Amino acid sequence: MNEQITEQKFEFLKGDKVLWMVIILISIFSIFPVYSASSNLEYIVNNGTTTSHVVKHMFFVILGFGLMRMVGMVKYEHIGKISMGLLIIMCGLLVLTMFTGQTIDGASASRWLKIPGTPFSFQPSSFAFLMLIIYLCRYLTKKIVRERTVGENIGFIFGPILLVFLLVAKDNGSTALMILMVSVIVLVIGQLHWKYIAGFISTSVIAIILFLLVALNTNMIGGNRVHTWMSRIETFTSSKAKTADVDDESVKAKNYQVMQAKAAIVHGGVTGMGPGKSALKQMLPQSASDFIFAIIVEEYGLFGSAFLIILYMIMIVRIVMIASKMPAFFGSLLVLSIGVMIFVQLAVNIAVAVNLIPVTGQPLPLISYGGTSMLVTYIQLGLVLSVSSRIQVYDEEGIGKKQSVAEINDIA
Fold it and tell me: How far apart are CA 407 and CA 362, in angstroms?
């Protein structure tokens, strides 16, 4: 009787229970640094109040859990079947964003699309990224039975990747590069022949170089952010140089964000200043989003930030374990691909905060203030939970590790 009650009690947490617990812990923790750092939006950006921002963040956390649970209830195979249609819709929204996009919260690029009749905006690029990866996983699975022709690879694999990349690159270079990098990793995991992957990488590198040369030396590509990207790279390299033949004040001005982030990390020390006691959150731009990890280190110290990273690593390990247990190729590939997406975003955000790579606009998964990225991450994790909940079903149906091509295609 007690066992039945326990099973009913935890039925809401459908899927991997450890992953659920990690998601809940990170989500609850996110409220505290966002509440502290969002005071920057109130007093510096003059946008809303600290209370309104934390309430908005909590709303997106609750909405994210709802979306994650809903996605977790849907068979992931069904989502794969509609991925092409969803990708086409997202590409249409990306085109619309190019002409009617908005900027919010002090951002410098028009990446947001306003939802008509509401005060909310969202970034189509984040959803397009996810839909592209789901589509690639689906297509690679359905065509695993035979060697694809060059035309098929160009039209159904490389074409969609380059289309999304080009639509995103104009206003969000870092996300566009992540799309290329993660897509290539998915192609490798999805067992696409190496010669096609090598050819795609070579072509992409040449195309990017030509794009940069045209954007930097002509006015043919209007409204691009290439000069901003180059400035960030130059700023990063100058900050790493031992000696630089440049004016010190100009270097300090360009390195302002990085210097403040470093100061916050150093200020935190081992134990941190305590929740809400950051001294640099008012001076660090994007302290509630892109640079929130620096604020976390300042307030919670080395111990607190290390604990958070351990939670993230547990999340990634559980994702890999789910992928290894899933007998269906599509489910395994999808989970691994989502794990790569989350890990890359996490690594980039932390690397920027500690000045290992140039400044980008990538948020910290499940923590940074901002609805779109948070909701997309919850949807990603919902897909992982959906796959994990299907493992037991497949075992009961007798679909084991030695899965035939016919079974793979039926499941996909």
Answer: 38
Residue spans of alpha helices (H) in 326-403: 329-353, 371-396
- Judge contact between 410 and 142, C-beta under 8 A: no
Place of tokens 């975003």: 345
CA contacts within 13 A on the Cβ side of 272:
21
Contact of 97 with 129, CB cutoff 8 Å: no
3 state SS of 327: coil
State pLDDT tens for residues 174-195.
888 999 999 999 999 998 888 8
Distance between CA atoms of 111 and 94, rounded to whole angstroms?
Answer: 9
> Which tokens is 254 given?
């360009």
User: Is 9's pLDDT higher than 50?
Assistant: no
The terminus-to-terminus CA distance of the chain in angstroms comes to 38
Residue 309 to residue 29: CA distance in whole angstroms? 12
Report the distance separating Cα 253 and Cα 255, nearest Å. 6
Residue 45 Cα to chain centre, angstroms: 25
Closest among 185, 192, 95 to 143, alpha carbons compared: 192
State mean pLDDT over 203-228. Answer: 75
Show Cβ contacts of residue 251 under 8 Å, excluding neighbours closer than 6 positions.
Answer: 235, 238, 239, 244
Question: What integer pLDDT is reported at residue 378 of this predicted model?
Answer: 97
What is the reported pTM? 0.88
The predicted structure's pLDDT at residue 390: 84
What per-residue confidence (pLDDT) applies to 3?
46
Contact (CB, 8 A) for 321 and 336: no
Tens-digit pLDDT profile for residues 10-25: 467 788 899 999 999 9
- Which alpha helices (H) appear in 190-291, and where do they start and end? 194-217, 226-240, 248-254, 256-268
What pLDDT shows up at residue 410?
43
CB 283 within 8 A of CB 259: no
pLDDT value at residue 145 = 56
